[in-house]
Amino acid sequence: MNKDRLGSVLQFIITLESIMRGKQQVDILLNNPSLPEMHRLIAQKVANLQRITREEGLYLFEHGEMSFVGTLANYIRERKNGDQTYFNRNFHIEPTNLCVYDCKFCSYSRLIKQKSDPSAWAYSMEEMMEIVRRYDGQPVTEVHIVGGVLPQYDLPFYLELFQKIKAHRPELHVKALTPVEYHYIFKKANVIYEDGMRMIRDAGVDSMPGGGAEIFDPVIREQIAADKCDAEQWLRIHEIWHELGMRSNATILYGHIESYEHRVDHLERLRQLQDKTGGFQTFIPLKFRNKENQMSHVEECSTIEDLRNYAISRIYLDNFDHIKAYWPMIGRNIAQMSLAFGVDDIDGTIDDTTKIYSMAGSEEQNPALSTRELVELIRRVGRKPLERDTLYNVLQDYSDTVFEEDKAWRGYLDLPVIQS
């Protein structure tokens, strides 16, 4: 048997063992005579690979204890991905934090009239290309481009930027812009979505991130993110992108003024579009942070609620392959904990190239993790660290990797002297 074939067989065995462990945990739940009837019904559905309803999703948010939803989510996670936990090597370009929109939750953006503010920036195309060139010779596989919306960053500007990145480094995966930016630049250029997304693809964009979804409910969206693209427009742009054979991600902004009903509505709309296109790769819950924004009076939700939200998202989105904990937003410790609550991806190395959440008061003020640090974060909780590319092709299995830093001589330990 060749090495690749043997590796596939071993991975199947490991995944099967994970599924059996998860199934045993679900069986323990089902054999608990004090389990409430609705809990039992939902657990039985999960065990039988059946989809839960909107009403059952709402029930989980309202009544699902962390241990209960965590057990079900972990079973689904291990059934889909075993112990495999993904990360990639990436960097961000945030062209500007000046923006025509005034989202109440945003700590990152500055209005155009604040362009002289010391905390504002707007990179030229050459400055953005300099960021790309900074990573020449480094084993990064993805550049993530997203930022504020400005009139001068129009369709021709971005088409040229994407073309230049691809000309400079053809193999670098360009994950760029959300429907918020696309809706604006297409409208400004008098281009319909279908033609615009085709132009974006042809210019070199390989996939689309999931930002700008916030909350789909129109009443809440109007209160926290008025004027920018609505839910139907956000979903339609992703649908068109999928119809072009391309992949994208999806997000939710949770823990502010939305209700559990609004969260379920958001998940349901995503699940329906995924049924239709199959184009979403991963779902990324994004926690509302209340520092330095117009919603600072809104208290942030607890870590328990974070973990419950990951778990219920994993249970509800049965047609999504992956759930991601974005560690620069949630913090590396909670991201590590989330791996037991349905999460199988913790994003990438980042290299301190994003300010979106650090400016909102997240635990990670200078977000950067080395490959070794990401691998150790995953291995410490008994998971299998896999470096992936953006499309989830596995590039390297780090399960048994010994890093040079771990081989280094650190000297003798200073032990206390015990007097007899």
Shape: globular
Count of DSSP strands: 13
**Weakly predicted, low-confidence segments:** 352-362
Let me know the largest β-sheet: 4 strands, mixed
Q: What's the tally of helices?
A: 16
Helix/strand structural class? alpha/beta
Placed side by side, the strands forming the largest sheet appear as: 11-1-12-13
Order of helices and strands: HHHHEEEEHEHEHHEHHEHEHEHHEHEEH
The level of helicity is 40-55%
Question: Radius of gyration from the CA trace?
Answer: 22 Å
* Beta-strand fraction estimate: 5-15%
- What does the average pLDDT come to? 89
Distance between the termini: 60 Å
Can you put this structure into words, describing what you see?
With 420 residues, this protein is of the alpha/beta class. The chain is 45% helix and 13% strand. The protein is built from 16 helices and 13 strands. The chain has helices spanning 3-30, 37-47, 54-63, 66-81, 125-134, 155-168, 179-189, 193-203, 218-224, 231-243, 260-277, 303-316, 327-330, 332-338, 371-379, 404-407, and strands at 84-88, 90-93, 98-99, 110-111, 142-145, 173-176, 207-208, 247-254, 280-287, 322-323, 345-348, 384-388, 394-397. The strands form four sheets. Strands 11-1-12-13 form a four-stranded mixed beta sheet, with helices on one face. The chain has a four-stranded parallel beta sheet with strand order 7-8-9-10. Strands 2-5-6 form a three-stranded parallel beta sheet, covered by helices on one side. β5, α6 (155-168) and β6 (173-176) form a beta-alpha-beta unit. α5 runs parallel beside α6 (155-168). The longest helix is centred in the first third of the chain and has 28 residues, at 3-30. The radius of gyration is 22 Å and the shape is globular. The relative contact order is 0.13.
